[in-house]
From TrEMBL:
Taxonomic classification: Eukaryota, Metazoa, Ecdysozoa, Arthropoda, Hexapoda
PANTHER family xref list: CELL FATE DETERMINING PROTEIN MAB21-RELATED, CYCLIC GMP-AMP SYNTHASE-LIKE PROTEIN-RELATED
Gene Ontology MF terms in the entry: ATP binding; GTP binding
UniProt keyword terms in alphabetical order: ATP-binding, GTP-binding, Manganese, Nucleotide-binding
Cofactor annotation: Mn(2+)
A Pfam short name: Mab-21
Family statement: Belongs to the mab-21 family.
Residues forming coiled coils: none
Record-annotated Mab-21-like nucleotidyltransferase domain positions: 62-185
Protein name (Swiss-Prot/TrEMBL): Mab-21-like nucleotidyltransferase domain-containing protein
Origin species: Drosophila navojoa
InterPro entries, alphabetized: Mab-21-like_nuc_Trfase (IPR046903), MAB21L/cGLR (IPR024810)
């Protein structure tokens, strides 16, 4: 076993989020409280909200030591959701519209959430509606939650596709990103959702675009690859912070890992060393930025690097390639020091 392999294993263990049971319990308490008052605030939300689904780094159990964020899908199951038609956006590969013309069963959809002509669900109208529910719920039912040791004050902000609740106490601060997920039926089996996602292409129709998601399948894919992949996912998150690559997110790494598992096989990834798998993932990232394209696992037409500017693509590629060239030489260096290896992850 090389020094590089030993060091990576040690670093992956050191940067692991401790997942203190009390911290997890406080997260669950805040999450449950927020979802409860949302249902109390709006009768229609109470009808269509079915369940919450954990996703992201906490769901995959790959959080690192300074990660105090959680991601939660809010499953919205509209009446006649099985009749919602998914229409591909020809101008924006990978994006789609949700056509409610056959599933428009009530006035809420027709008058408040969809456009009047085509019954296409509007993500901007959906956002304004949910935003008002969060704002009014905290105002009407209170923004203080009792934790294990002390109270948390809840602060709310909308950012992108997420409705973020920040829980602040004297001892700890953490945040939860709540993301709406419209329940849909796809041709393939499984639980599928449509998540609001705007494209960067000009035109008013970007206010109606969604992307598909299958969180359950994603979690299963990663779990089948074993513990070493989870170590690598932690290392990559620490690596991107160390190299100041903030637009690289856990979702990019997970998506890349799933593509790798489908190409090489789960068993291959399962038995790879941490160092070999880490270098392979880093190489794949270099290739993705060289091509300017990282296909989304659930719709290969969608480019997960689509929100990067051209100069950012070049900058990220150069940074990744320089790091890969250096790190790829480490397995053959018997005198490699721990400090030199750690410098890429702190």
């Amino acid at each position: 076993m090389s020094n590089f392999e030993c060091y990576l294993r040690e670093i992956a263990e050191d940067i692991r989020n401790p997942d203190d049971p009390n911290n997890i319990r406080d997260f669950q308490t805040v999450k449950s409280y927020v979802l409860r008052i949302l249902r109390l605030q709006d009768p229609y939300f109470n009808i269509i909200f079915q369940k919450d689904i954990l996703f992201g780094s906490l769901a995959h159990k790959v959080r690192i030591y300074n990660d105090d964020e959680a991601d939660v899908l809010m499953e919205l199951r509209f009446p006649a959701y099985n009749l919602i038609k998914q229409v591909e956006d020809i101008k924006r590969p990978g994006f789609m519209f949700l056509d409610f013309s056959q599933a428009c069963c009530d006035t809420m959809i027709a008058n408040h959430l969809a456009n009047n002509k085509g019954r296409i669900l509007s993500q901007s109208k959906l956002r304004r509606w949910i935003d008002s529910i969060f704002t009014n719920a905290l105002y009407n039912y209170g923004n203080v939650v009792h934790g294990i040791y002390e109270d948390y004050q809840l602060k709310y902000v909308w950012r992108g596709a997420a409705y973020t609740i920040q829980a602040v106490s004297h001892l700890r601060t953490f945040s939860i990103d709540f993301v709406p997920a419209v329940k849909i039926v796809c041709q393939t089996a499984g639980t599928w959702h449509a998540i609001p996602k705007s494209s960067n292409i000009a035109g008013h129709m970007h206010r109606y675009t969604f992307m598909i998601s299958n969180v359950d399948a994603e979690l299963q894919h990663v779990a089948r690859c074993g513990r070493k992949l989870k170590d690598v996912l932690r290392l990559l998150q620490a690596f991107r912070i160390s190299k100041n690559l903030p637009k690289l997110r856990c979702t990019h790494f997970v998506n890349l890992a799933i593509w790798l598992s489908t190409r090489m096989g789960y068993q291959t990834l399962y038995y790879m060393s941490v160092s070999d798998l880490f270098l392979q993932m880093l190489y794949e990232l270099c290739e993705a930025f060289y091509e300017g394209h990282l296909p989304y696992i659930w719709n290969c037409q969608m480019n997960l690097l689509g929100n990067f500017k051209e100069m950012e693509i070049l900058q990220y590629h150069n940074e990744l390639l320089d790091a890969y060239t250096t790190l790829d030489s480490y397995p053959s260096q018997p005198a490699l020091s721990y400090a030199r290896c750690l410098s890429h992850f702190e």
